[in-house]
């Protein structure tokens, strides 16, 4: 077995305290594939493409989400298409010469173990997205206040600092020992603040 595929010898289990998917190497791929819990048939197989008939896909949308997530977490899996009406999954992957059967065994093992994954609920993801959005709004508001908060200094002083730092920054680009980038950034900041 190749080293890259040796890492696929896993039984996908969950860590319920962190609600993350954790791969734990407990059984070999062949053991998992030969002890089916989920009805699965290989309908069509080409190098780099596998079409599986999985009746559970028609009646369990959560399982199809888990299966898609688990398969797409493998670096050599390209595309996963699930068709619940036809109860099939089409998996496109990067075929490695000599390890085609090992790759298919890994895919079949994931089909068997995908039901044991725990995915974050949609509500938790929406709450996280809302929290990040509010953080971004607060950060951009603070940045705007910072840029416009220099009214007391005077726009003329800021323009003078900007022009001076621009001159020193250009000189720093030409002279080898004088750093130019910090002065150019200071010039840019001062021009923004005084405009």
Molecular structure report:
There is one protein chain. By secondary structure, the chain is of the alpha+beta class. It has 2 domains: 3-118, Alpha-Beta Plaits (2-Layer Sandwich), CATH 3.30.70; 132-194. The chain is built from 8 helices and 6 strands, in the order αββαββααββαααα. The strands form 2 sheets. It has a 4-stranded antiparallel sheet with strand order 3-4-6-5, covered by helices on one side. A two-stranded antiparallel sheet has the order 1-2. Helix 7 packs antiparallel against helix 8. The protein starts with a helix and ends with a helix. The relative contact order is 0.11. This is DUF454 family protein. Keywords: Membrane, Transmembrane, Transmembrane helix. The chain crosses the membrane at residues 157-178.
Mean pLDDT: 74
Using DSSP, what is the number of strands? 6
SSE string, helices as H and strands as E? HEEHEEHHEEHHHH
Radius of gyration: 28 Å
Report the CATH architecture of the largest domain. 2-Layer Sandwich
Structural class: alpha+beta
* Helix segment tally: 8
The low-confidence parts are: 1-26
Helical content (DSSP H or I, runs of 4+): 40-55%
Number of domains: 2
**Strand order of the biggest β-sheet:** 3-4-6-5
CATH class division of the largest domain: Alpha Beta
The biggest beta sheet reads:
4 strands, antiparallel
The first-to-last residue Cα distance is 64 Å
Relative strand content: 15-25%
Shape: elongated
Q: How is the CATH topology of the largest domain named?
A: Alpha-Beta Plaits
């Amino acid at each position: 077995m190749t080293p890259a595929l040796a890492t696929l010898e896993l039984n996908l289990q969950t860590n319920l305290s962190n609600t993350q998917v954790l791969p734990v190497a407990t059984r070999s791929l062949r053991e998992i594939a030969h002890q089916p819990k989920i009805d699965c048939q290989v309908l069509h197989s080409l190098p780099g493409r596998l079409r599986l008939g999985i009746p559970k896909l028609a009646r369990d949308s959560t399982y199809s989400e888990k299966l898609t997530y688990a398969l797409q977490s493998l670096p050599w899996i390209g595309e996963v298409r699930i068709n619940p009406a036809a109860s099939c999954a089409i998996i496109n992957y990067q075929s490695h010469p000599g390890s085609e059967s090992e790759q298919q065994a890994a895919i079949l093992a994931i089909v068997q173990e995908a039901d044991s994954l725990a995915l974050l609920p949609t509500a938790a993801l929406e709450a996280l997205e809302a929290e990040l959005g509010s953080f971004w709004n607060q950060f951009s508001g603070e940045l705007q206040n910072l840029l416009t908060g220099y009214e007391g200094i005077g726009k003329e002083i800021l323009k003078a600092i900007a022009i001076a730092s621009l001159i020193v920054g250009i000189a720093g680009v030409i002279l080898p020992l004088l750093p130019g980038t910090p002065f150019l950034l200071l010039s840019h900041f001062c021009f923004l603040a005084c405009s």
